[in-house]
């Protein structure tokens, strides 16, 4: 198995959330003999209830499988993540009377740590879906799952072949599309985020690709102090996503899981 494998997750929180969410099939648990704890015992209880096969391994064996030493003594072999289609996600939304559409579009985000952190923020902030391109984007790997602390198991991630077409569909459905850019015309604090919307974020260094940016309704920025560089993409997503939640009066309960 390599570090980009989509067929296993590692770490206590990612494995626990995978078992709790029940959206993916857990095929087998691999556990280190040297790492018995209350958290591991809880996972073992879940596994026993679900009839999941368990194998005890030496830590060095788990190191070889995950290629990382931060697996916390547990790896779960599982099925790959299932992606949604944008049209289905929009059509299936049933709570528009109380919650307007809210999507995050990621244009060529390739760092798994950033992607995982973004997923976690989106789930907590109440994002309906995270849209990524089929090509040129980080896949949902074990590293992404670990970086999300298991939040990926509750996320709705949408894979589309063409982001421009995805934006076009969103506009047809009545969504406003805002591109986050360090040279954006308006600061994000001046935008009315109560409307149905999608926020577009580009990769660090290159930002949003020109054609994608041209198809946004508006470009907005996060103001920064003179001489300071812009936030990294995961921080930028958090800042604006929680501003959307604040404007909409979303109550973010401790430990709550959203639909992103």
From TrEMBL:
Q: Which GO terms describe its biological process?
A: methylation; RNA processing
Its keywords, alphabetically, are: Methyltransferase, Transferase
InterPro entries under this entry? Answer: Alpha/beta_knot_MTases, Ribosomal_eL30-like_sf, rRNA_MeTrfase_TrmH, SpoU_MeTrfase, SpoU_subst-bd, tRNA_m1G_MTases_N
Q: Does the keyword Methyltransferase apply?
A: yes
- Could you tell me which residue ranges the RNA 2-O ribose methyltransferase substrate binding domain spans? 8-84
The record's Pfam families line, in alphabetical order, gives:
SpoU_methylase, SpoU_sub_bind
Show the taxonomic lineage: Bacteria, Candidatus Schekmaniibacteriota
- What is the recorded name of this protein? 23S rRNA (Guanosine(2251)-2'-O)-methyltransferase RlmB
Gene Ontology terms for molecular function: RNA binding; RNA methyltransferase activity
Transferase as a keyword? yes
GO terms under cellular component: cytosol
Q: Which family does it belong to?
A: Belongs to the class IV-like SAM-binding methyltransferase superfamily. RNA methyltransferase TrmH family.
